[in-house]
Each structure stands twice: as structure tokens, then as C-alpha cells.
């Protein structure tokens, strides 16, 4: 795992393209041509918030980790008001699925949080994103509510986890 660099953007966008195609084929419109875009990842890289997992020098997945909570998180029934690290924009290459990369990406977010003295994590995903919802539940994230987000017709589910 390492911090992403601007030279990783083409590969990240290849992963996004494959992920969007797979999502759309499964009836999930969470991501599309409008979001996420290269500029979102460029900003994440500039802020030092984007991390990549690579195998033999090839980026196989990525995750954005920071303290930025979407405005839509306000008013949800979070278990705590302590400072949280937030997981955003995460994906694994279609060719590299079912190898534990997604779990490693989230575990890395947890390790990064712990190293910074943060014991609380938050994230969200689209209700139709069955893979991500299943992964979050499997590794101990608790669903605390739902929100409207990105103008989508269906809700996003919000999750939290305490590292204690």
C-alpha cells in the first residue's frame, strides 16, 4: 500500500471505467460519467488522501481516506460525535477481484486511523451496491442509517466502526 501519485491517474480511471460498467450491468447506478471523475482523484492525490494497492507494479485498487464528512451526514444517528476518519471512493480492478484487496484497503484505512489516534471510522455506499454493503457488514461496520446523496433516486447506507 502506498500513497497514490499523479502518474497513477490513468490506471485509476481504467479501474473506474470497468467498475462503472460492472455496476451498470448489475442495475447499480452509484457511479457514472459525472462521478467520480479524474479531477476528484487528482484532488485526493494533492491532499495526500488517496492510497493504492499494487501487485508487481500495477495498481489493482485504491481508497480515499480523510476527515471530510459529507454535509448529508449531519442529522444521522451516529453513535458518537468524536472525530472520525471517513472512507470515500474505493474500488478494485475487475481482474483482481476476490483476492482480498478490498478488505486490505479498508484494513489499511483502519490502521491509518489508529496510527493517528482515531478510533472511529465512517463511510457510506449506495443501497444497490450489494458487494460493498456485504463487505462492510462482514468486516464489522454497523449500518446506522441512510441518506439521499448525489441526486440518486435510491438511498445511500451509512456505516460506522469503532476500533476499540
UniProtKB/TrEMBL annotation:
InterPro entries according to UniProt: Acyl_CoA_acyltransferase, GNAT_dom, NAT_camello-type
Keywords: Transferase
Pfam family membership, one: Acetyltransf_1
Record has Zinc-finger as a keyword: no
Recorded GO MF terms: N-acetyltransferase activity
Source organism, top-level taxon: Bacteria
Boundaries of every N-acetyltransferase domain copy: 1-164
Name of the featured protein: GNAT family N-acetyltransferase
SUPFAM superfamilies assigned to the protein according to its UniProt record, in alphabetical order: Acyl-CoA N-acyltransferases (Nat)
